[in-house]
Amino acid sequence: MKDKIHGSGLSRRRFLAASASVTGLCMAGSGCLEVGKMFGKKQIPVGLQLYSVRADCAKDLPGTIEKVARMGYDGVEFAGYYDYSAKDLRKMLDDNGLKCCGTHTQMTTLEGDNLAGTIEFNKILGNKYLIVPWLAPEQHKTLQDWKNTAEVFNELAAKVKPHRMMVGYHNHTHEFQAIDGIMPWDVFFGNTVKEVIMQFDTGNAMHGGANALPYLQRYPGRAVTVHIKEYSKTNPAALIGEGDIPWQELFAICETTGGTKWYIIEEEKDAYPPLVGVEKSLQNYKKLRGLS
Length: 292
Description:
Distance between the termini: 41 Å
Number of helices: 12
Strand content: 5-15%
CATH topology: TIM Barrel
Structural class: alpha/beta
């Protein structure tokens, strides 16, 4: 049997060759634009992080989910459940033809006796990806703190794997502020197993001074879900495709060696009403991909 890389269907030899090709082309500058031609454009589904429209969700979650579906999103990632049961949430998704592409799951709900209930809740939702949205910087002041947390995630990954689930971590900015000359992001993902998802938030990373591309290249197969969020030095209202992120290069990496299964839009700017902003973001994404 061929040695397959997790979730990719590629043999290890072909995967490593592809990774080297992507890295070499991207280091050459515009060569990253050619990667899509080499491997073919994948139709990766696009979800919405519902935190983007949290005020609307708090007022009318069923109506908001229906509107999101009508916009053309394929799924949603939850960041709170607004006192609905897992069964009720699943019915909302099913009624609108949506998938659950993740839940932002607080660390406390993964600890001790809480884990079993969290697993069961997410099974009902049909969700495989348990993403921790925040690790407090005041509790991660040293490299050893990050190593200790990495070990906790490794243990959690082993516990949820029999349920066909994965745990992951979503960045903000402090993960890219060096400690003793080393990036916490590298310490964390350099000490976690491949089953720990690297949910890279492109906008947050660039706000912290980090370019997404090297990190996506450095950890092949780990960017299972990616938050595609724009960043601009000059336009704080920029939506996807209107700022500084090299989207075509980023998509090329995600769709070859990144192992990406979902793109997830998270739009938090105040330039538009939330539902307008997330619809415009999806339209901009489709333009970037030649889908509209």
